[in-house]
Amino acid sequence: MSAKPLISIVDDDEWVRATTIDLLCSMGFAAQAFEQPNDFLNSGDIRRTSCLIADMRMPGMTGLELYSKLVESGHAIPTILITAFPDDRDRARARQSGVRCYLAKPFKDDELLECIRAALRSAEAN
User: Fold this and answer.
1) Which of 16, 30, 123, 124 has the least CB density, counted as fewest CB within 10 Å?
2) In the CATH scheme, what architecture does the domain 6-125 have?
3) pTM (predicted TM-score)
């Protein structure tokens, strides 16, 4: 029996963290949440994380900066950025950097789940 993929969520909004974990667990994923990017970076769970969901705008470090930091350290985790402030330039920069999806809040559960499935497929292909 294979282990459930671990999805890590980094968002400074407690409600987003809680509802996203509930959704992911109900779909059979293992999920954990972090309030700040550095909490995730210091968690020791980077290697176990199959997919990262990060808020684009957080104090101290954006979701895109978090993704870039992971890539620079050799941990290119398939990443989904979520934002309450969608911007075409940010979306383009994120996609050019290798981010898997860029979703505007509020997003539909189906949109997020399709992004996660695509991210997991891309991780398996590499």
Assistant:
1) 124
2) 3-Layer(aba) Sandwich (3.40)
3) 0.94
